[in-house]
Amino acid sequence: MTSYSPLLIWGMIRNNNAFLIKKRNINKPFSSEPYNLTNLSSYKYSGLVHKKAVGIVDAPDKKGFTVVYKKQSKQFRPSKNVVKTTMKSGARRSLHKLKRLMNCNKYRMELTKSALRRASAVLRSQKPPRGKKQRPKKEA
């Protein structure tokens, strides 16, 4: 089986794919790809193009986050291509584990910062909202 160059694939799908979200008065279109960390339509962050791609989503029980990534060695076997790892051992520890997963495995190190930002945003969204403090009413 042959694989094509990621740049060639990006040239074909750049302006037209199912995940592209174009709006008026917005220069750069958005993307709703499953492995896109920033939701921007660009070659660097595209999960469709690269053999190695990372995605971060909510954990099924809304505690922590799940790291979903592609295995390059199984690229032609879609059922075994995806690896899911749930991290829910506290925010700092989970973010440290994610950083180690990205750096130690040399898994697209240019995406490490974006992955950490996405994971911390997911963790922040799971916190309960802070209640507003009511001021005591002034007596007239």
Automatic annotation (TrEMBL):
Keyword Ribosomal protein: yes
Gene Ontology cellular component annotations, sorted alphabetically: ribonucleoprotein complex; ribosome
Gene Ontology biological process terms, A to Z: translation
Residues of the Ribosomal eL28/Mak16 domain: 8-125
Keywords from the UniProt entry: Ribonucleoprotein, Ribosomal protein
Entry keyword ATP-binding: no
Region named Disordered: 120-140
Any GO molecular function: structural constituent of ribosome
Basic residues composition-biased segments: 127-140
Similarity annotation: Belongs to the eukaryotic ribosomal protein eL28 family.
Name this polypeptide is given: Large ribosomal subunit protein eL28
Species this protein is from: Pyrocoelia pectoralis
